[in-house]
Amino acid sequence: MVTGRRHPPPPAAAARHHHHQPSLDPEQLKRARLHVERAIKEKKIFMVQGPYPVIRSLLRARGWVERKLPGAGREEEEEERWDEDPDGIHDLMSRLVQDQVPYFIWTNRCGAVDCRLLQQDQVLNHYARVGAFTTKEGLCLNLRNLPWFDQADPDTFFPRCYRLGAADERQAFIEDFRLTAARSLLKVALERAGDVLAGTEQPPKSDKGPGEWPGPPQPPQLVEVALQLCEQHLGSLGHQDIDGDPQSPGMTGTDWDRFLRDYYRVAHEGARLALSGAQRERCRAVLQHLAGRLPQLGMEGDRNIWILKPGAKSRGRGIVCTAQLEEVLRLAGGCTAPSARAGEWVVQKYVERPLLIFGTKFDIRQWFLVTSWNPLTVWFYRESYLRFCSQPFSLQCLDPARHLCNVSIQKHCRPARDRHPRLPPDQIWSCRQFQAYLAQVGRAGAWHQVMVPGMKAAVVGALRSAQDLVGSRKGSFELYGADFLFGEDCQPWLLEINASPTMAPSSAVTGRLCASVQRDTLRVVIDRRDDPSCPTGAFELIYKEAPVPMPLYVGLKLMVKGCSLRKPRLAHRPPQGAAPAWAGTRRLDPMELRR
């Protein structure tokens, strides 16, 4: 535990403390001592690290006494503590239990407590080694193993992701980027079908006027190359490449560089694209077949945008969106630079076709609670909240104000001047407001029929993929915050899972919901121990593994088989008084052998 001297309160707080803490009368002291004695007897001593006034208040209302941490930290935390104890009674009781064992510990980081030193009846709000799914690197790595644990495909809810510090994964990302560019080119070709039809004089089907497209049209060979690449990829997905010619020439690095330069001109710079009628039909057929093989084809869009993230940072720090392969490798330290260590960077496919509200991107923070890892027991919170970007969504501009919904980022961004009046000024909606909006736009059933079931399945899948790696402890629990994005079809995409999600209210909505999720967490982890039928608030039990029955005896099973020994026939009579060869042996009783 943390040790050290308690920091003195700020002068203003000290003055208030002195003003509101007269000497306690004997009756107050007696009641305080009796309360402490009862709390010690009932093992109701708790410890909280960090600014969690709701947890403190709820535990005190249940008769718990806080053993305060010496040297608590920041001045604002100290000031908060003094304000919530105007008469000093809780501070007095805290001094009376300084030598007592805390039986409920709530901290804002797992490393604050050494789990190995805890007793079995001490409750802690963390598990060890949860980085297997709460870091971007861990989630990226372990979700690939999900098919070994469940009949689920992570590509249906988790945008494909690569760790750039691992050489094999970096190469896999490069290949993925190239193939995604080929698919994107086919999409652009179909979207612009009629811009320049090869062999005809048909005018462009576009909002651009004559001569507004930059440069001459790209040759029909560009679409042909993209078609061949996509057809080869489709064949490999169907394992048709197993019997192919291994000596057939493929695209060299120079060929790919040339193809990507031409693709950038078309997709990013708006260069004209020549497309024959036959190629148009092939594009449709190939994309249709790929849609049946690639669950993420629909959310890819046509600009091939990826999002680069530091592997273990939070609050949106260091995240960059880019549509250039060269920029991804440069920002991540290059292909061979020493800084590209395993786990330092991950790159993930950006959802280019998200569900928008009034033309603005948003994501959703969804809480869930794990009360056991063996058997895995998961509670899903029915309440959640949306976080909006401050600028309208656009793939032409990849700045954070339009694409990163994190509150820590958006609070530094200026809202757009033409922002829709129905968007919240504080950038936050409750899920109930979201459901009302869905009903208004004719998608009333999407929340309960598509979004919530998809989020539940993604949460359980992520936990099962990392279950064997987490440090399970019977007396622990942990509250997590998952961030989801919805596609145009309302399907949820899991972005990340956060340990110790912030409980600091940033709006009226989060102030209410953060308090309620803390209240209901205590209902599940404390109240249910004494009353399994007690209400759990908005928490819903969505997954609990069946317990594995243990055999009565798990040691080695030993069994001895024997048979009686027959008296040997002697070729000659032994000398008088000599013991026969079988002397000292006796017939073994089978029951004795089993013993």
Structural commentary:
This protein is of the alpha/beta class. The chain has 3 domains: 11-106, no CATH class; 132-159 and 354-544, 2-Layer Sandwich (D-amino Acid Aminotransferase, Chain A, domain 1); 160-206 and 214-237 and 252-350, no CATH class. Helices cover 37% and strands 14% of the residues. Strands 11, 12, 13, 14, 15 and 16 form a 6-stranded antiparallel sheet that branches. Strands 2-1-3-4 form a 4-stranded parallel sheet. A 4-stranded antiparallel sheet has the order 5-10-8-9, with helices on both faces. Strand 11 and strand 12 form a beta hairpin. Helix 1 packs parallel to helix 4 and helix 2 (26-41) crosses helix 5 (89-96). The chain is globular and about 95 Å long. Mean pLDDT is 84; it is low at 1-22, 75-83, 199-213, 335-343, 578-588 and 590-595.
Concise synopsis of the structure shown:
The protein is built from 20 helices and 16 strands.
Strand-pairing-aware structural class: alpha/beta
Number of strands: 16
Q: Kindly, what is the distance between the CA atoms of the first and last residues, rounded to a whole number of angstroms?
A: 51 Å
Strand content: 5-15%
Count, helices: 20
Percent helix range = 25-40%
Q: What's the level 1 CATH class of the largest domain?
A: Alpha Beta
Q: What's the shape? A: globular
The biggest sheet, with number of strands, parallel, antiparallel or mixed sense and barrel status, is: 6 strands, antiparallel
Q: What fold name stands as the CATH topology of the largest domain? A: D-amino Acid Aminotransferase, Chain A, domain 1
Low-confidence stretches: 1-22, 75-83, 199-213, 335-343, 578-588, 590-595
Radius of gyration: 33 Å
CATH superfamily of the largest domain: ATP-grasp fold, B domain
Rounded mean pLDDT is: 84
CATH architecture descriptor name of the largest domain: 2-Layer Sandwich
Number of domains: 3
